[in-house]
Amino acid sequence: MVLNDNSSVWTELLDGPGRLDRLLRQAAIRHGFTYSIRSIWGEKRRWMGAVASIKNIKNPIGQTTVPGNSTRYTFADIIGRSPRLQNAKRLAELASRSDSTVLLQGETGTGKEMFAHSIHNASNRKNGPFVAVNCGVLPKTLIESELFGYEEGAFTGAKRGGRQGVFEQANGGTIFLDEIGDMPLDIQASLLRVLEERQVVRVGGQRPVAVDIRIIAATNKNLVEEAAGGNFRPDLFYRLNVLSIDIPSLREREGDIMELANYFVRKISNRLGKVVNHIASGVKFLFQSYDWPGNIRELENIIERSISFCEGTTITLEDLPEYLKRKQPVAGNYSVADLNLRHLEEQAISEALSKFDYNISKVAQALGIGRNTLYRKMKEYEINTGD
Ligand SMILES: Nc1ncnc2c1ncn2[C@@H]1O[C@H](COP(=O)(O)OP(=O)(O)OP(=O)(O)O)[C@@H](O)[C@H]1O
């Protein structure tokens, strides 16, 4: 397992080495990595307490999915009813019906890879391969041969008979170019050629090989700004920016936070074989006021950590990492009692909405208030209507 100081894998600070170990071990096993304790305790002592998002620890060549369709997600797995997310899903569903290039833009952890899987699985290429390449971690020395393949004798150590690159491996299916904004400039020119001609020429070869591929690219960078700064080729940007879909951050999807949190509690407690089925109101309040820079991945990691440390059936503030506890909102203009009452009211409304599937009449009836009062309170607490 390779832990890289510069990567965004270190998403959370924890309290102690034992906990770090356990969480890393669980995550590593889940993602099929071999976990070696020495890789942490050697030079990485100063990272003590960090939890890696193992998903980001790609193998050295950056290819995250082997050829053959090993996608895990469909649209049904993408949780959230906020209007922004629903809109992104609608666009992605439409995109899955065509063969055009898709560009997924969104912050880290917002679900871009889930969208890419879902588009592939809903497309008529679903029985073909889905090959994911992380353009940000491909070492410069390997990048061309990994992408475009090589002919026998192309360089010292080249395999007999040569090797297919990922574009050839994805033939008949979808190639997912993750973190496209991190692709080195010199490779961007070759990539543009492949996108334009739908042909690859292997390193050390001359013969173009036709590839029938659907391209989905993803980035957490603003490619317009990257292009303006000279880090991304504008012509490649235009070639990729055909069906562009913005995946909203979690803080822009406030109504989704608790739905996702509850979903992860169910899923993760099942997986860990623990009976944890509630989230304390203080935690909910904190979740709703936090700005989630790591988005859904961060929420998922926090729930996993909390369930691991939870000694009862309810996740409490005690189970949260220190850095999050420190973010507890201050009372502002409200007294603590007011704040608690407001919070309880907000919580009751959110729970009723979720229980009655956003049926306003039923929710109002259950809460013993009129529909107009309910709408007013939803507006006050910025709870969306679930449309
Ligand atoms: N809407 C969602 N519903 C359920 N789980 C989600 C959702 N969005 C993201 N996740 C989960 O959050 C984690 C991060 O998602 P994903 O890897 O797709 O994000 P990403 O945008 O590709 O991240 P990065 O840019 O860092 O590669 C995954 O474990 C995924 O299952």
Automatic annotation (TrEMBL):
EC number, as in UniProt: 1.14.14.51
The record's annotation in SMART domains points to:
AAA
Sigma-54 factor interaction domain ranges (all copies): 78-308
Print the keywords alphabetically: ATP-binding, DNA-binding, Nucleotide-binding, Oxidoreductase, Transcription, Transcription regulation
Which molecular-function annotations from GO does this UniProt entry contain?
Answer: (S)-limonene 6-monooxygenase activity; ATP binding; sequence-specific DNA binding
Does the keyword section mention Transcription regulation?
yes
Q: A GO term (biological process) for this protein? A: regulation of DNA-templated transcription
- Protein name according to UniProt: Limonene hydroxylase
Could you read off the lineage of the organism from its UniProt record?
Bacteria, Bacillati, Bacillota, Clostridia, Eubacteriales
